[in-house]
Design a protein that fits this description.
This protein has helices at residues 12-24, 37-45, 70-78, 97-106, 118-134, and strands at residues 4-8, 30-34, 58-61, 88-92, 110-113. By secondary structure, it is of the alpha/beta class. It has a five-stranded parallel sheet with strand order 2-1-3-4-5. Helix 1 crosses helix 5 (118-134), helix 2 (37-45) packs parallel to helix 3 and helix 3 packs parallel to helix 4. It starts with a strand and ends in a 9-residue tail after the last helix.
Length: 143
């Protein structure tokens, strides 16, 4: 099975850096990107242009998004029985303790601060991928 990561990221530069790092690490998961909170929820609720969207294995989410921000998206996802088992990993520039506390309170499974520089990003993504995919932490996605 090919793992699918739903990436919720409004920065083209950050998304391209993520794709580049995944290629360099020879990680072969599929990515689907949405750029804001409304599209993230539309994708997960399979509404409108996302009617046939496959269920992601994991959600990798930035916090500070246009419109509905990441905190609200986390809260809404974790309140839906059909979606709450999908792990949410926050990957953001904010190291604010209040943001971290809020994300965990709403149900995020992990919180990572985006590192500066491609080398540090590569290390962070390698650890993230190993933890969530290679060790088998992900829950069964049957339904």
């Amino acid at each position: 099975m090919d793992d699918l990561i739903l990436v919720v990221e409004d920065s083209d530069e950050d998304f391209e850096a993520l794709r580049r790092v995944l290629r360099e690490l020879a990680i072969t998961c599929s990515l689907h990107r949405v750029c804001d909170g409304e599209d993230a929820l539309g994708y997960l609720y399979q509404k409108n242009s996302f009617a046939d969207a496959p269920r992601p294995s994991l959600i990798l989410m930035d916090l500070n998004l246009p419109g509905t921000d990441g905190r609200e998206v986390i809260q809404q996802i974790k309140q839906r029985d059909r979606l709450k088992a999908i792990p949410i990993v926050v990957l953001t520039t904010s190291a604010n303790p209040k943001d971290i506390e809020t994300c965990y309170f709403y149900g995020a499974n992990s919180y990572l601060v985006k590192p500066m520089g491609i080398k540090k990003l590569k290390e962070t993504i390698a650890i993230f991928y190993q933890y969530w995919f290679e060790v088998g932490i992900l829950p069964s996605m049957e339904n």
